[in-house]
Amino acid sequence: MTGVEIAGVGMHPFGRHGDKLALQMGAEAAQSALADAGTDWSRVQSAFVGSYEVSNPDAIVGWLGATGIPVRGVFNGCATGGTSLQMAAQAIRHGEADVAMAIGFDKHPRGAFSADPAVVGLPAWYGQTGMFLTTHFFGTKINRYMHDHGISATSLARIAAKNLKNGSITPHAWRQKPVSVEEILAAEIVNYPLTRYMYCGPDEGAAALVLCRGDLAREFTSTPVFVRAAELRSRRHGAFEVQSPSLPLESMPSPSVDASKAAYEVAGIGPEDVAVAQLQDTDAGSELIHMAENGFCADGEQEKWIAEGATEIGGRLAVNTDGGLIANGEPIGASGLRQVYEIVHQLQGRAGDRQVPGNPRVGYTHLYGAPGASAVSILSR
Fold it and tell me: Cα(365)–Cα(39) distance, rounded to whole angstroms?
């Protein structure tokens, strides 16, 4: 199988951008990634374009150039970006393309994601109890986890404060104002125990990657970053997932556990080798749970890790160095590619004020979303 390298990365800042079209933001992110790789759209032989709000994301060729290449639309919930990366990498490994792109963009209205439960085959009562509102689900899940594993609300506030602090030193982040642990704890509760500063918000933005065959890497960059693994897993019966209407007495692990194990096996790398990670932080509780689900610590050890600053920039495992979703928000199609953008910058030593010390060599990205899908990638120099 052919090795795959990330030749260039690009972003359109996340936030609110008035009447600017999602497709335009995606095109700008793609052009930025192509410039980063020192190439242009004519070199790209296949592309995978993800979006939730745009029904035909392949229409981006109208902005980039109608060159006749296969361009596939991608949607897989919050795992869309990881799925686009995986598909682009597979296109190269299987000989479909020497150079491929993963592009993601979205433009969401304000407010939490919600809809009629019938769209995913659930009964009306599921929505009437509030469980189809994602904020409610995440509050319920972390509340049980805290009870089972001795986690305090202070740990949740410390995660949110860390991510907002990291966002304040990230030029392209949406939220760039630090907020103290005390202020976060004292803020309005949205769904207990999560206060408003502990959640991300849907917003707008785009991100893109240029990938190439590993043996072509030096044509594009002097500091190549390789895709060691890109794995996707869906939920198993009994897992406590978004949109689960019931649970059996015997629970099953999250798909994040399965995707993580698969990625480590494919990459030949263990969690102890990872220096910097991007973990899905739809809310502060999600980041905390995902620390254990991705193999970085045991359930319950997060309390000590967070109190000691282990996940801060400069800690033993820097997590969400650009502020994660809490600081950047989540345009679904782009969110996972933003994670890769950040890891590539960290591994190449060009992350500026948020640079992880010690010349990191291995990075990790993780996505999780409804109705129970998880994507994990492992990147290395």
Answer: 26
- In a domain? residue 173: no
Structure tokens at 84: 């686009």
* Within-domain flag for 149: no
Total domains, the chain: 1
Nearest CA among 280, 291, 268 for reference residue 326? 280
Residue 74 phi/psi, 5° resolution?
A: -130, 135
From 139, 181, 74, select the one nearest 282 (Cα to Cα): 139
Domain residue limits at 265: 4-110+200-380
CA 269 to chain centroid, in Å, comes to 20
What CATH number does residue 27 fall under?
Answer: 3.40.47.10
Cα–Cα dist 229/148, whole Å: 32
Residue 312 lies in a domain: yes
Other Cβ atoms closer than 10 A to 70: 13
What string of pLDDT tens digits covers the 381 residues of the chain? 579 999 999 999 999 999 999 999 999 999 999 999 999 999 999 999 999 999 999 999 999 999 999 999 999 999 999 999 999 999 999 999 999 999 999 999 887 776 778 877 888 888 887 777 888 889 999 999 999 999 999 999 999 999 999 999 999 999 999 999 999 999 999 999 999 999 999 999 999 999 999 999 999 999 999 999 999 999 998 888 877 777 788 889 999 999 999 999 999 999 999 999 999 999 999 999 999 999 999 999 999 999 999 999 999 999 999 999 999 999 999 999 999 999 999 999 999 999 999 999 999 999 998 888 999 999 999
Partner residues linked to 366 by β-bridges: 376
Radius of gyration of the chain (CA): 19
**How much is the pTM?**
0.96
